[in-house]
Specification:
The protein is mostly helical. Helix 4 packs antiparallel against helix 10 and helix 7 runs antiparallel to helix 8. It is globular.
């Protein structure tokens, strides 16, 4: 299995190291009654000292850690082993931007998200994805233009809104415009990927899950007995599904020649 992917062995080692550290953090949490290490390992945030060590909290944090480990594997394993497909300059640039966007999504929790650095790390790579992915999946020139406009409104508007908020200005309806634009872009791109033979169906399904799951979990959170601080952070971890979608999209563009891409 490890040899099926070009970087399967190093990806397995890195993921294994993370899982080992996760197990240690779980043992420490249960034995010492301290969620600090487990919180850092899974949510990449400053632990909330008021949160009690309960089996449900430990379970949720552990599940979040397993999701992170899975995202690490999907990102690091690379494309399938074998001769790469022929690529033009635009496709090579797109793959680089997709990997950068996936990597920035992984490291962004370590940064202060509501900051200039967090904005650059979050929005600049995705802006590049919007510009380069839209013409690749667009069926016609008009379709590509629509994708780009929606993406620019979405991610560009979000970047401008964050800049205004950081400078003390009112964002107003810009947040709504940006959210709607990014939603439409994601839906249209996923629909276009579904009809494009260069992308496997599993990749598109993960993209759909990344779009839908945070909303579903947020709604379900009101029905659970989990502390809001824990639940909100765990829901945020669902954002690593975007890492999987971005990374797998880049892998798919470099699928080996004469090798069918597996469905999962």
């Amino acid at each position: 299995m490890l040899r099926r992917h070009r970087l399967g062995v190093p990806a397995f080692i890195v993921t294994g190291v993370y899982l080992s550290a996760l197990v240690v953090a779980v043992v420490v949490a249960l034995a010492a009654g301290d969620l600090g290490a487990l919180w850092w390992m899974t949510l990449f945030a400053v632990p909330d000292a008021s949160i009690q060590v309960t089996w449900l909290n430990v379970l949720l944090l552990t599940l979040a850690g397993l999701v992170v480990a899975w995202a690490l594997w999907e990102f690091l394993r690379g494309p399938l082993a074998g001769p790469p497909a022929e690529q033009d300059r635009e496709t090579r640039r797109l793959r680089v931007v997709l990997y950068v966007a996936a990597g920035s999504t992984l490291v962004n929790p370590f940064l202060v998200s509501w900051s200039l650095l967090g904005a650059v790390v979050t929005f600049v790579p995705m802006f590049g994805v919007v510009l380069l992915l839209s013409p690749v999946v667009g069926r016609t020139r008009r379709h590509s233009l629509i994708l780009r406009v929606c993406g620019i409104l979405g991610y560009g508007g979000a970047a401008v809104g964050l800049g205004l908020a950081l400078s003390g200005h009112e964002v107003g309806a810009l947040t709504l415009v940006a959210g709607f634009g990014s939603l439409i872009w994601n839906v249209l791109v996923l629909r276009a990927q579904w009809d494009n033979d260069r992308f496997e169906r599993a990749t598109v399904k993960y993209g759909i899950l990344a779009l839908v799951l945070p909303v579903v979990l947020t709604i379900a959170g009101g029905l659970s007995g989990v502390p809001l601080e824990v639940y909100d952070d765990v829901v945020a971890v669902a954002g690593v599904l975007a890492v999987v979608w971005l990374a797998r999209s880049a892998h798919d563009l470099d699928a080996p020649l004469a090798v069918s891409v597996p469905s999962a």
